[in-house]
């Protein structure tokens, strides 16, 4: 009797300790009265299988976000392609902050969605570390925003409404990303390449998650610093801008063609250094677009909170060995669910704040001047700067300047004002077609080689002064189309020879052999002629690519705008004029 009671007591104690559950629920749940209560990610009697509805739901949301980012990126490229004066697909794909954010969000959500849709596929070979790539991509996108806001805060006279990438902070961005992806590469080597045990793999994953948490915490700090300065305190160099007012006025006094006067108008360019900030650094509330301001603050706070949540969850995953076994499975499930929702929210934030993919200048995150409601009134500024004859003023135009006043001449081929290489004047043309980049003109000559007067200007018929060299740039002569056509010619010649050999071997009839051999020779002749023609064309292109156009660089000191009067006056108005223009006072 005593032994029976002792055995029953032992069975009850074992059941209360969870010994009644098979395989101790695989370490993925709690044993309750002999039944496994699994974590939300797993299912089954032993918690050995994945919870497919849960994974499909989370993965489907991530894939939907990736699809939206892909569509936005495509529309952005197509819109930029249509805006170009000289459409070029490569120029439309030029790296900008907007495109990079779309790409990062697309890759991060795609990797996360693929992992949740098929978790079994990511448990073998190199794919085990692929889900961890989500955090380096998230760090890249967040650090890009931080660097962009740093330039907004520190750089003056930048056209934020134009598509651009980082300039002064580019080196810092690259350095930080080298550190991030070096950690990812080290994780892949440690977990997948090296012969590491299962316990060690789990330990290393926790270590790398801790590293990502530390780096993300640093990014969040700078994210809040620059975000608060720009969008809460409204401080930064983006409030300061140089404005130029160009006024064409009629010259006083009689003038006639008989007197030999062919000049009747005077062009005056006057510049104003605008500063919307007061002496104490504040901004007049009447000059603020409160709708955009509230949207930016809401977006900033929401992303910062979600990033802080991810930092906390990564830190808790790093220290999971100390607390997970002591917390009931229901709490662990809530922890996992909120973690996934935070990951979805951080990724979804990018396409939401970048919603206007076809007009990014309307987005507060890319154009901080959207926060300003009261800009400099151009007509009012012209009246204030005019010499007293306001009724005679006409053709008033204002431009924002980047760097200095008067640099308005662009290359007539690429129209890319962001390029730093100097402009040249290779012919006698004046006006909008006078300036061109050396490389742009050389590319133009390469593409138009073979046409009559290809080395002459099509407008003024001036012969370009070129210097030929003995060096041939074959990489400029052979394009992708040339390589494809030459490869096809070689394939046709080889196949025709193989066909003739097969006919000779299979058919003993002389007629069949003659027809097969003759047809093969004809194909070889056509292919050889085709090959020779394209090789000669590539040689000529390479020869043109090696020339150097002899010309003088465009003098920046000359007037950048051809006028009838040849009289250009540049004046810098006082800040009182600016304040009157902003307040609408006479």
TrEMBL record:
SMART domains: RINGv. Residues 403-467 form the RING-CH-type domain. The keyword Zinc applies. Keywords: Membrane, Metal-binding, Transmembrane, Transmembrane helix, Zinc, Zinc-finger. GO terms for molecular function: zinc ion binding. The chain crosses the membrane at residues 52-79, 100-118, 133-153, 165-186, 206-232, 298-317, 337-359, 483-504, 510-531. PROSITE patterns: ZF_RING_CH. This is RING-CH-type domain-containing protein. It comes from Pieris macdunnoughi.
